[in-house]
Amino acid sequence: MKKRALRLVAAIGLALAAGSAMAATNDADVTRATLDNGLRVVIVRDTLAPVVTTEMNYLAGSDEVPAGFPGTAHAVEHMMFRGSPGLSKDQLAAIAANMGGAFNADTTQGVTQYYFVAPAQDLDVALHVQALRMRGVDMDPKEWDKERGAISQEVSRDLSSPDFKFYTQLLAQMFSGTPYAHTPLGTRPSFDKTTAAMLKNFHDTWYAPNNAILVIAGDVDPVATLAKVKAEFGSIARRTLPARPAFAFKPVTAKTVQLPTDNPYGSVYLGYRMPGLTSKDYATALVLGQALGSQRAALAGMRFDGTALFGGFFDQSMPQAGVGMAVGIFPKGGNPRPILARMQAILAEAADKGIDPALVDAAKRNAVADLEFKKNSVDGLANAWSHALAFQGAESPDAIKAAIEAVTPAAVDALAKQTFNPAHAITAILTPESSGKAVAGKGFGGAESFASTPDKPVQLPAWAEQAFAKLDVPKSSLKPVSYTLPNGLRLIVQPETISDTVDLYGAVQTNQDLQAPKGEEGVADVLDGLFPFGTEQMDRLAFQQALDAISAHESAGTSFSLAVPSAHFAEGVKLLAANELHPALPAQAFAVVQQQVAGAAAGVLQSPGFLFEQGLGKALLPANDPSLRHPTPQNVMALTLDKVKAYYAQTFRPDLAIIVVVGKVDPAQAKNVIEQAFGDWKAQGPKPDTNYGAVPPNRPGKLHVPDASAVQDSVDMAQTIAVTYDDPARFAINLGNQVLGGGFYASRLTRDLREKHGLVYTVGVGLDARRHRGTYTVSFGCDPDKVAAASALVVQDLKQMQQQPVTDAELKQAKGILLRRIPLGESSFGAIGGQLLTLSQQGKPLDAMTVAGQHYLELTAPEVQQAFAKYVRPDGLVTAVKGPAPKD
Fold this sequence. Notes:
Largest sheet: 7 strands, mixed
CATH class of the largest domain: Alpha Beta
Number of helices: 32
Number of strands: 26
Radius of gyration: 27 Å
Shape: globular
CATH topology of the largest domain: Cytochrome Bc1 Complex, Chain A, domain 1
Strand order of the largest sheet: 1-2-3-9-4-8-7
Helix content: 40-55%
Distance between the termini: 29 Å
């Protein structure tokens, strides 16, 4: 299932109260209660959009698994989607699909989460499903045999990542003798030995109300919601829980790991054991990590002085312990040893002399500000409470804020001295290796035949049938205000009051492939690498210090952004405009970035990922199509700073720029601030066309790109398609794609490739429609001996879409998915900003999602069939495979 990286989030609310079922406490928009059976409940009202997130956190994960069976909790998570008493797997899949939102789960060391993100109108359905699955789960051995195939594919996928391979070795070395010595993923050998009875025993042991925390966030009535929770969960009996596993950490013994990687660059890691989420020192560790990862700190400085392509520090924290990791990136063919020595020296100095107090202060302020930014998402708000309560054992997210504010420079220095001991460091060097040349594919695809027929229509339970009976176009909660400034820049403002922050999203519509002179491929990459070096008035350190002073996050370039507390909106925009319109572009920095981009290009050209993408592109597109242009080391090294400046002057134009502002700001105020900062920006010459031209249909073909580091094949089956983002046919294709690939188990491709045959872990289908061209792609990952069978099923399912109309149930479900996704696109500042920016770039009205909803509502099954018959060519696909050679 999906692995969500949870971070510390939203600082709101008070302590989780213990008490009887209805002895809830309320504080502003937070309602807390503990039912008589021990289920803890937090309800956080958030009116950003008519959306709700429910997260059921079971306080059991891979820590609690039987010895020798590291993936038991992960396997139980999978089997939770195969039905429960009173709810079959087909009904569950259909319900999840009809809800249209995210319905998934993730397994970590100490917590397993099950979550819905859905329209608020579907809260009753989400709660009922969560309650049924707490009461019991079907563990049919035949169903486990099927799911074992899918989960094995997930293991193969992750083990195809060299970074994940290193991570497994790091955990084994750093946490030997404890449950943390293995990842929650599991292994194929352990799954082969796992039985359905073992999985049922794990569920029945740990999935108890008194071992769970339910978090609900969104546009809901807290009192009514709590009553629903009591009605659904109140009668579930509490259970006696076994003892938790003990953690007796041994001193870490230094070790060096060397692995090949299929990435176009190499990586150097220095890993150290750090305090965990429940430690009294966790906030100190958080501040330490942010200070070391600052753009003003020495690790990041490796990028700016040319030592490395990138440098930084990150951490992953588990309840009982964490991992702190310094990282340096080097180009293919580069020497990692100087980078490793520099990283070791930086951390040794941190241990010996401590951390610059100014960086500690900035890290604290930024960490606290980030908590406020996390309020800008309904999903993020639920994560905030889940993380604080289930993962950290804290009373509330506010407790995290208080702990951060209490951190002192002395405490940070003491932790650095304790942590960064070279005798306890795990070192890894991942060296890029070249791919074999792409070759025409032989012996895979289209060989098998399956007599698969559509499953019978699923009869939903009455409570679900009633909830999904009527389809409507949701009413948008957005009321954006649009301006066009005298210089042609378009500004869109969506006021929101959910937090004291403002997010800005911007883009300049450029296209290096169409605008860079011949022989200057890579000029845009060099330009992008120069923006972080500051402005004409401030060098990079002074510029970053100014951002830190107002707790702002900023990036400049063809895509630019700003996240800033609302009180500092004007200051933040002024800094962004200075970086965007008056970048420093210093000669010394140009030499550094030029070498970095050239070195990166050398690795990219020999990497499996590039050869896969380029090979597929050449198979789909005419020779010399501009999208096939790419930088070479020679092109990049032939550039001059004057050429980079000329490209910047030519392509950065206000009449091709769009800015979207979302947050606590008045539209008129935002217009005034943006006009003052960007109003003097002028365009020169006629406006260029930055869109690729139309292309003819491609010929069918096969392509294999060797990737020695992968154990699983990555497969794209693609073709050009004569559907653009202005073509009305896109609505019918999108709707049909939901039948094929939407709604989790309820889609045809997932049912045929995963559910029935266990060939893949996930399969996706998508239409990439642009102004003058489109691409249609089906993607999946599977073992080499399963490529032929999986690709044959894809072709079969596409042909079936052309040969007969989809069923009424499938059509209704697909419409429900797309219609219910409309409010989900308004449930975070990022989603709102991205949606408004994309619509503006495509020249569409800002209410285009509502217009699209009406199209989806009115579409018929024959119209979907006709669109697939006219535009999709099942026998015209190019099948591209990256990984081991496919087998017959």
